[in-house]
């Protein structure tokens, strides 16, 4: 029974993913174009390149990272592209601020949730695991 349920869920998920008609965007730019063009457009918006080298085992890779402000916070934007066609498939935002307490993390999280609720509207189904985690940690620290 579990296998049948998992199989049905898998096919439903695949159907929903394939039914997506518009691409995701970042700062108004579609996340499906050529990497160099995407970087140039972000530089026009005020982002600047940062030297970022990542080491994985004995392999060293230069990463495409830009620095700038995202949602009013200093951030690094890491751009992922396919190795052959250089087509972007992922953009990751890393906030540069280090949080010292759970209270700061929760506050930053709630600000982002409010920002996205204003931009996209409140979701019909809300699952906020972080709120539950913070509540448990606060209870343990008291």
Tell me the layout of helices and strands.
Layout: H1 2-18, E1 25-26, E2 29-30, H2 35-44, E3 48-50, E4 53-56, E5 59-62, E6 64-70, E7 73-81, E8 88-95, H3 102-120, H4 129-141
Antiparallel strand pairs: 1-2, 3-6, 4-5, 6-7, 7-8
Helix pairs in contact: 3-4
Description:
The protein is α+β, with helices and mostly antiparallel strands. The protein has two domains: 77 residues, no CATH class; 45 residues. Helix content is 42%, strand content 27%. The strands form three sheets. Strands 3-6-7-8 form a four-stranded antiparallel sheet, with helices on one face. A hairpin with a 2-residue loop joins strand 4 and strand 5. The protein is globular.
Whole-angstrom Rg: 19 Å
Tally of extended strands? 8
3D shape? globular
Q: Count the DSSP helices.
A: 4
Mean pLDDT across the residues is 78
Strand content: 25-35%
Structural class: alpha+beta
Q: How do the strands of the widest beta sheet line up side by side?
A: 3-6-7-8
Output the helix-strand order: HEEHEEEEEEHH
Q: For the record, give the distance between the C-alpha atoms at the N and C termini, rounded to a whole number.
A: 44 Å
> What's the structural domain tally?
2
The main β sheet shows up as: 4 strands, antiparallel
The level of helicity is 40-55%
* Poorly predicted ranges: 4-12
């Amino acid at each position: 029974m579990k296998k049948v349920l998992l199989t049905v869920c898998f096919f439903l998920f695949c159907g929903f993913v394939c039914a997506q008609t518009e691409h995701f965007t970042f700062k108004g730019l579609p996340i499906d174009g050529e990497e160099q063009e995407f970087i140039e457009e972000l530089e026009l918006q005020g982002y600047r390149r940062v030297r970022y080298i990542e080491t994985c085992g004995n392999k060293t890779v230069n990463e495409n990272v830009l620095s700038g402000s995202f949602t009013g916070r200093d951030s690094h934007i890491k751009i992922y592209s396919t190795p052959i066609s250089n087509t972007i498939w992922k953009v990751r935002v890393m906030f540069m601020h280090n949080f010292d307490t759970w209270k700061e993390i929760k506050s930053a999280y709630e600000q982002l949730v409010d920002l996205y609720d204003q931009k996209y509207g409140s979701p019909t189904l809300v699952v906020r695991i972080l709120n539950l985690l913070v509540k448990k940690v606060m209870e343990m620290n008291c």
